[in-house]
Amino acid sequence: MTSASYGSPWLRYRDGTVYRGEPRLEPVPASLSMPGRAGAELRVYDDVGRLVGICSSEWGTQTLLRARATVTTAGPGALEFSLAERPAWAMTHGTRVDLHLWGGPEPVWGGYITSAPSALSTRRPYRYDAVGWRSQLAGVIIPQQTWSGWRIVQVVRDLVRRYVEPRTSIVMDPILIDERATYILGDYRAERATLTSVMDDLRDMAGLYIWGVDARRRFLFQPVSQEVGWHWWVGVHCTECEAEEDSSKLANRIWVKMGKRLPNTSDQWLTYPLEDLASQRTYGVRDGSITAPSVYSEADAVRMASVTLAERRAPTVRLRLRGLDVEEPVPCVGRARVVGPDGDEETRPIEEVTYSVTGARIEVEVDLGDRQPDILVRLADWHGQQERLEQLQQAAQRQTEAAT
Q1: Domains of the chain (ranges plus CATH)?
Q2: Which of 77, 109, 282, 372 is most buried as measured by Cβ atoms within 10 A of its Cβ?
């Protein structure tokens, strides 16, 4: 079988084209006595970054019985693993661990331990829990900082230099902070806000962006990739495809609460909502709201609400693929094209990849997200709507003042 990364040969797309695939290049072993690895290795490091131990699912005395790791678009998520014996080296809260699959030189997952058995524990096997590096940012508070007239990319770099690198083990790689996030903030003030909430605001105002920390502890701020890197057929490359539609977060009229009080009133809410009339005709009026305490500019608030409205205006559909036939990590980036047993096909963004390790066997599940909206078009549409509403509001205010 050819690599699922390129598609199986002679299978026909719905549009009639035939994709012949490309042959998989088998890795050449370094020596005849050292065959290629098929399982997993958990590498453990000390406080200064030295490798102190390896737990393998295939070799050695320290056996990795099982592991389950999730990787999202924001980087490594949760990891749980079990060991047959208590390791000779220290493995406790905060210990750095990397997970390598199929003998790969780069870690698929990287983070630190948050839960470990104590010396009194008699339960076997020994179970550990860990989280990705992004979790370190949850405890970072920005005391008081104002960015007015700054481009978003400049704010992101400033945050990493001031608050991320000095307080965590996360580092900045300029290549991973995209230069195209050039929207200029009107008046943004972080006052005892968490760094994660500030980054969420910047992500929304930038448009369709993601931010996080990769397995190598590098901070990233990137636009969502539209590249289709994988082509999978249900029944050929995966054993099961589960589709789920969720309308619990649907909202087509968004109200916004800002961090400042509006003129001539004590209210912090924008006097007008952002609406999607097409969605309202289909699903009825569904109200939603967002609170942006760090946003002090009406233009910034409207831009943030525009992205929220674009993402919530319709029910979300998620696909989960199980039993994928792959022998290499699946990067959680870009999009995948999925063809069902009846020829129906979807191209959707990859949002989460889960690796389950048992011995030398590695099972891969992939969650695909909803169709991504055209954020830039909607930002332009709702910016015009904002200007019209502001003109009406100003005209009404002038009439009120003239009458008094």
Answers
A1: 37-135 (2.40.10), 140-223 (3.55.50.10), 253-314+375-403 (no CATH)
A2: 109
